[in-house]
Design a protein that fits this description.
The chain is of the alpha/beta class and about 450 residues long. Helix content is about 20%, strand content about 25%. The strands form four sheets. The chain has a six-stranded mixed β-sheet. Strands 13-12-11-10-19-20 form a six-stranded mixed β-sheet. The two termini are about 35 Å apart.
Amino acid sequence: MADTEMGEPTIERKQAVYHNHDERFEIQREQYKGQQYSHIYFMRLHHMRTMLNSLIPNWKPQISVNTVLGLEEGKECIIIGTLYKHMKLKPSILDEYSKERSVVPLVKPHNFMSLDDHLILEDESGRVKLSGNILVPSAFVTGAVVALHGKEISGGDFLVEDILEPGLAPQVDRPLDSSEDKYVVFISGLNIGSSEFNPLQFQLLVDHITGHLGDENEQRVASQIVRLVIAGNSINVSQGYFNGQTIAQKDIAKVTEPIRELDIFLTQIVAAFPVDIMPGFSDPANYALPQQPLNRCLFAGSSTYNTFMSCTNPHQFELDNVQFLGTSGQNIDDLYKYSDAKNKLEFMERTLRWRHLAPTAPNTLGCYPYTDKDPFLIESCPHVYFVGNQDKYETNLLKGSDKQSVRLISIPKFCDTGVAVMLNLRNLETHALSFSTNL
């Protein structure tokens, strides 16, 4: 704290050491030459099988590991493969084609599960239908890799007696609690340009976190904010304008105005402290994951500051040796369509236990057709795992079997809730910042 010429104390903003680790999500030299998605499934299975094979000696050392083709009726064994979930309600392009010619329109369910769903395990040698009560179809999705203990029964099914999931990945030790508080603010779903967006509500947030609102105590807390992370869906422009066609002169403002308004807000923030902005489903970015950074030319004002950082989705970074990993929500929203859980945090927990950010990609979630890697594999467990654009704010501290500890954060849509989330780097505790303009 220093004194100004008028004798009033000046509160200095705290700093944090930042490292961006988005390299694995950046598409640079990859070229699309009509390749199929079998490569990414092969790389996923190869990597996960190697890891699961290292865990089996501590799980069932006396049981042999077999391929699907090598199964023998009645003989106990372990098989490792990729799950495929057969769902009769799952939409297909052929169904869409027939619906267009149907007199009675079919209602789109928010979730495509049914009691007839069943699981199949697949490896390079073949596939086998799974049976038994151990594996509940509603808790799994296509794309997860697991090891199963059981035996083939008459009829060719594999009766599952036990399951081994990859579990939480190894975790780098988090620095010991420091004595000073530093905060990261998370926000998502601004939806600037939509009818729900309230500019006054967002301006209140901007003024609060930049220290222009409140008494000295609130300003002191604001000075401890070291970064803002915007987790997708910042603007809302009709997707019809992004179909490659020339935009009519009368519609140009509908596209440019929300981006210009966002830039004005961002310029106020980056003048105070660093901002990471991630693309989301509604933003002007590529559709398939990993979404590439929003073009800096969209932000004429804020991009001139070195505190402005346009990032990928998913986004991975490090702040004062605390490891962060997060998405704009598409991976969890897709799990919600094809499986069941008590809340969004449970979906997040499953992705960590399966060691995969987006297990349903590329089956039902669009992703780039990689040929030599699967960038969504979680090889190191983060300290903070966040997901944007959810219905409400939720958080939990997930503990692993090898002393891992992960702070899970479900970030709500700001335009619907007026809620942002603050995380304390010192102890990974979180709390909600709620803003309302209703009198």
